[in-house]
């Protein structure tokens, strides 16, 4: 049979490939003509077909259904919308029990014993399966429990080992703590001991040094005191502090009085000499020769004496003043003394005059 | 809605108390929806089915991923006792797997369970305590329990609950007190535990001694132990049950770390029973006994007494267990130590 799709004949020479995929205008024209020809053919065929004759006058052709059952014919096709959806996750229901409905005739029959089957023989495999399944289930459960029990026993043994190790660790910790505390205590003790030793040596050293230092203390102290004059003979001191000053003051006073007497005497002599001078100046001129020698003597003596008295006067005047001030205190004594002094002063003045006369 | 069942009478081997389980991955989400339903029967049936499913760890993982725990938390406070019982049972089985434990911690189920401690139904309380016990074995779980302030409640419950639950409480306490003991000491747990040491049941005695051991691992606990409990523990060393002996020896081990503990143990004459424990070859308490004697040997009187018994320790050096050998060596070295 000829099938266009199957290539027959020599295929080597057949290399008919269209030059272009698009049909050429020539081909388009050919197709158009072919279509026209087909249409014309169809029209011709329609005209040839026999048709029903036209209705007679006064009558009409009506379409009539001649079937057994009438049908409603309409242009519009009856459409009915139906949906269908599968149920999500619909489970397979358990197999329903199939008890078929009873049909047919009832017939009775009787089965005698031993006719059908031997129960014991037949039941054996069923029983085996049943018992086997039960026992298997039971074994599984027992195994599960046994496994658990073994696990717990294993765990308990492990727990014991672990506890033993833990106890060992804690014991060693405790031991370590005790050793450490003991060490600390001993160290502290040792430190205290060392410290005490150090203190004792320091104390000994300090004591020795202090002793040596203080050995010299008492003699040096006494030396210093003695040099400072704290050890004194009281009688000597008494004499020094009281008696001798008193003695000196008394001596001073006596000397003052003597000086006072002398000054008084000097003043007396002075006044006397002045008076005598006056007197002698007023005397006749016969006495003038003696008088001038005497005057000269007296004037020599007088200025000397005056000089002496002047010189003695001034301190004596001062002393007189002091004497007078002192004399007010001890008037009686002074007066007697003054008299004595004046006597002495007089004698001494005479001596000085003598000396002056000797000199002159 | 049409049911999948054709006949009204059920076949004989379907459990009517359980909800039908959907296939594969759909099982757990469907059960979760059923839990939300307002009908009590549906909820109960869903819980029963869930209870069976949860034995498989993969289901546990899936359940936690889906977010079952929130539903279960709300159901914990349901008014019906069956619902509560089944919920606690489910949580208990979940807590047996590590995935479940982690999930319980992350969803804060422990604080929700505190309400159930006073539940009138015994089984609910028992399951609750079982959950606590399981959770306490994990460190984060123990921390959670401490943070929820459960310790005082548990200590208080010790006095009122029946024996089985007491054992569970003691287990919980021992595991959680390993982390921190101050709360328990504040509520005077030591006094209650001291009473339990003389209880008739062996399990309770050993567990109470174990709790005292855990209290003793902390410093403040040691002080309380030394003062009050050492004589009772020494008397327990001569108990007939090896478990009790092991726990008592362990508790003494920690009590004698402090010097006061050592003195009170010596005063209570702990050395002879401990030596007996060390001499026996196949006993669990050997390690703890050796350790306790090591502690006591640090005291001069103890050392004097133990110098006569060094050969017992020499025997221990032949024990197959590595830890016992080590402990015996340390004990011998401590006994022979002379102050320099």
Number of helices of chain B: 23
* Share in helix of chain B: over 70%
How many extended strands of chain A? 0
How much of the sequence lies in strands of chain B comes to under 5%
Share of residues in helices of chain A:
over 70%
The average pLDDT score of chain B comes to 83
Structural class of chain B: mainly alpha
Annotation, overall tally of beta strands of chain B: 0
Query: What overall form of chain A do the CA principal axes indicate?
Result: elongated
Terminal-residue CA separation of chain A: 220 Å
Radius of gyration of chain A: 93 Å
Q: Characterize the biggest β-sheet of chain A.
A: none
Mean pLDDT of chain A: 78
Shape of chain B: elongated
What's the multimeric state? heterodimer
End-to-end separation of chain B in angstroms reads: 94 Å
Structural class of chain A: mainly alpha
Most extensive interface: A-B, 27 and 32 residues
Unreliable stretches covering 5 or more consecutive residues of chain B: none
Give a quick set of tags describing it:
heterodimer; A: 360 residues; 71% helix; 0% strand; B: 340 residues; mainly alpha; cell projection (chain A)
């Amino acid at each position: 049979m000829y099938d266009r799709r199957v290539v027959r004949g020599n295929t080597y020479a057949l290399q008919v490939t269209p030059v272009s995929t698009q049909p050429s205008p020539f081909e388009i024209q050919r197709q158009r003509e072919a279509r026209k020809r087909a249409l014309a053919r169809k029209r011709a065929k329609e005209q040839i077909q026999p048709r029903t004759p036209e209705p007679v006058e006064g009558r009409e052709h009506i379409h009539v259904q001649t079937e057994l059952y009438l049908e409603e014919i309409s242009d519009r096709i009856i459409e009915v919308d139906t949906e269908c959806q599968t149920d999500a996750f619909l489970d397979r229901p358990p197999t329903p029990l199939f008890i078929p409905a009873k049909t047919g005739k009832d017939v009775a029959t009787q089965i005698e014993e031993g006719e059908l089957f031997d129960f014991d023989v037949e039941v054996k495999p069923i029983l085996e399966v049943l018992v086997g399944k039960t026992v298997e289930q039971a074994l599984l459960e027992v195994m599960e429990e046994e496994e658990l029990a073994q696990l717990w026993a294993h765990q308990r043994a492990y727990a014991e080992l672990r506890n033993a190790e833990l106890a060992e660790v804690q014991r060693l910790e405790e031991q370590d703590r005790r050793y450490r505390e003991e060490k600390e205590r001993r160290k502290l003790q040792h430190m205290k001991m060392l410290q005490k030793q150090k203190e004792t040596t320091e104390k000994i050293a300090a004591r020795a040094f202090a002793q040596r230092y203080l050995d010299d203390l008492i003699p040096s102290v006494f030396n210093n005191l003695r040099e400072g004059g704290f050890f004194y003979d009281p009688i000597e001191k008494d004499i020094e502090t009281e008696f001798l000053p008193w003695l000196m003051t008394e001596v001073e006073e006596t000397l003052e009085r003597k000086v006072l007497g002398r000054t008084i005497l000097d003043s007396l002599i002075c006044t006397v000499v002045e008076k005598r001078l006056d007197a002698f100046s007023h005397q006749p001129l016969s006495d003038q020769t003696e008088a001038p020698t005497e005057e000269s003597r007296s004037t020599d003596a007088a200025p000397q004496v005056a000089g002496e008295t002047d010189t003695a006067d001034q301190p004596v005047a001062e002393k007189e003043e002091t004497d007078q001030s002192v004399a007010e205190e001890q008037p009686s004594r002074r007066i007697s003394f003054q008299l004595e002094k004046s006597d002495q002063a007089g004698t001494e003045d005479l001596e000085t005059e003598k000396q002056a006369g000797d000199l002159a | 809605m049409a049911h999948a069942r054709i006949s009204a009478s059920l076949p004989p081997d379907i459990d009517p108390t359980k909800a039908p389980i959907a296939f594969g991955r759909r099982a757990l989400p469907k059960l979760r929806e059923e839990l939300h339903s307002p009908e009590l029967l549906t909820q109960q049936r869903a819980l029963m089915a869930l209870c069976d499913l949860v034995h498989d760890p993969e289901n546990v993982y899936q359940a936690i991923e889906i977010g079952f725990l929130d539903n279960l938390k709300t159901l914990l406070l349901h008014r019906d006792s069956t619902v509560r019982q089944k919920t606690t049972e489910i949580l208990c089985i979940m807590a047996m797997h590590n995935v479940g434990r982690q999930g319980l911690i992350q969803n804060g189920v422990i604080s929700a369970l505190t309400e159930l401690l006073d539940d009138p139904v015994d089984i609910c309380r028992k399951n609750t305590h079982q959950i606590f016990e399981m959770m306490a074995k994990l460190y984060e779980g123990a921390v959670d329990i401490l943070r929820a302030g459960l310790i005082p409640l548990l200590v208080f419950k010790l006095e009122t609950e029946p024996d089985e639950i007491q054992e569970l409480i003691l287990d919980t306490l021992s595991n959680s007190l390993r982390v921190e003991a101050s709360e328990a000491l504040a509520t005077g747990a030591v006094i209650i535990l001291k009473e339990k040491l003389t209880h008739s049941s062996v399990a309770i005695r050993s567990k109470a001694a174990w709790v005292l051991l855990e209290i003793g691992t902390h410093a403040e606990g040691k002080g309380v132990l030394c003062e009050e409990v050492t004589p009772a523990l020494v008397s327990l060393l001569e108990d007939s049950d090896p478990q009790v002996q092991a726990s008592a020896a362990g508790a003494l081990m920690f009590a004698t770390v402090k010097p006061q503990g050592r003195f009170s143990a010596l005063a209570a004459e702990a050395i002879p029973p401990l030596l007996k424990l060390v001499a026996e070859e196949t006993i669990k308490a050997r390690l703890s006994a050796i350790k306790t004697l090591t502690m006591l040997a640090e005291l001069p009187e103890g050392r004097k007494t133990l110098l006569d018994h060094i050969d017992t320790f020499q025997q221990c050096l032949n024990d197959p267990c590595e830890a016992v050998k080590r402990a015996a060596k340390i004990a011998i070295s401590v006994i022979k130590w002379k102050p320099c």
